[in-house]
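Loading example: each entry is read as two labelled lines plus one structure line.
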Amino acid sequence: MKRAPYGNLSCYEFLISEPLIADSMAIGGQTLPHAGIIELVCIYATMRQKTSSADEFLRTVFPSEAGPLWENVLSKHGKKIGIAKTINSLITHIEKNAQ
Amino acid sequence: MTEFTVDDLRKFHEREGEDENLVCPHCGPVFTLIDEEAELRLRGFIKHQSSQSDEMYLLAKFGICVGYHTGIENISPYGVPVIREDDYSPKLERAPLTPEELAIFDETIDAPARVLQPTNERRNFFKTSATAALGDYLYELDPPYVFEQFMSTWQEEDDNENLEKLNAPNEWFDCLWPLIKDTLDVKKEATIKENLLITIYLHKTTEMRHIEPLWLFWKRFGMGKRSLERAIASFPTELPSHFQDLFTIIERDYEPERSTIESLVNTLVLDKICPPMNGSEMQGFIQNATNFLGK
């Protein structure tokens, strides 16, 4: 993720190039930290190697119920990580393009 | 579960008549207190006025501050009655100290002065309130925090080092108290639990390097969307310095790496979101995830 290119940036740089957390998640004008989000992607990428539990994992951390909490917490940019198709494409891209 | 609200806390204070937190209207929370009747009388103050009270005395219900009040008009040269913290308006100005006065202040800084700190009773009360507010979810704090059944508060003067050795450095309330006392004045709409959880999240992420996405943490404590909105709204527009420091640290120090992946994997396994793994499986899993981060 830190080496695989995405345009002029690495995939990691691209992911953090915009805030991952919604502006509304701020106290005193400071947005709460985006801790754990990149790590989730890495953990899911590792779990994909065991297909049986990976899908369930993704549904648990990014549930598809109406108005889930994660959608409130994440910014428009960050929410893309919670979409199964997008996260899977991203991981495939990283695995293919790792230098 | 019934939550312990700020209103409950206020009622408790009213009912129990908890120790007042006092301030000098001019010096603020750090002031030099005199509150003994005889000493007060010598300076022309009394604590209680009765029909027989001499009108020459000024009322100082909680005592007086005998600090330096130079440049303030219409006050007694012998002191200023201290007031409740609730009635304190920091906008009251005082003239800046002259270099001579500053020198005197420096010389007398070791003199017995009352530095307003939350009392042990107040601290213990909040520990009880926070414990009640979290209910069974208190145990979700471990890890990264631990619970001590008994906390040692006894110490020789200037022996903080040994006290630290007696108590676990990650005892939950000890770690969080400096932040909690900054936000005791939780806005009415929010509960103590909601305010506390944001505080815990920031502290554990920053100081304990315990990494977890905000929404998973929030759900782990049985909380939903509305409570998160209320919790965020419960913080003041201008954050106390302890909180500012946390944001500075996270900005400077946080970057995903093996240790942050390890922290999250451990939490996810404990929370049964990841399947259970033995020691070597977990190390292999963490290594693979770290390798993916580095790819």
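Chain A touches chain B through 42 residues (CB under 8 Å).
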